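Input.
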Amino acid sequence: MTSEPPAQDTTDSLTSFPMQWDFIRGVPSMKFLPPEGPPEVAFAGRSNVGKSSLINAVVSKKGLARTSNTPGRTQELNFFVPAGHAGSADDLPPLAIVDMPGYGFAKAPKAQVDNWTKLVFSYLRGRVTLKRVYLLIDARHGVKKNDEEVMDLLDKAAVSYQVVLTKIDKIKEAGVPRMYAETADRIKKRPAAFPEVLATSSEKNIGLEELRAAMLAAAQS
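Output.
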């Protein structure tokens, strides 16, 4: 069965954000990574931060990234590419989105957590085509210690990252400017952090266009 053509342009020029996406593979270890070539942007965050829901909202496709109430369900690096591309060496997409395993979950066995952590760190350190990591922070809780540990790693590896607040609709409107300010203050001295903080809600479709624009700009950088 042939895929339908994408609704928007998915050529190498990336003049607009592709709006039809497919899952191409889950990567349990580095040897299974797709061929390097297209720019990649990755989504990272604590378990239950709303990562899968936000990815689904950004690409306008329910169920593309698996959502679950069980922390730690995403156990691999999951790669998504614009529809019509296989992601193989002879059919490289113009952009890839990588859904990374969540961190900070307490219920998974330690050995499993260690394996996922090693996979994520290896990917961050060794993937030349990784243009930016979107580090998701739950607006209800702000930056936690394990978020700062991930920032430390990204700073050390010199991997560009941008903080994205999720579930912004779950806090009172009066508290939004304070959350922006507190988050911006936490990252202002970090060398690899992109200075602009984004705020989103996958439920209310808040901030999705801004996030798409940021991803497009990162891919072209």
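The longest strand covers residues 130-138.
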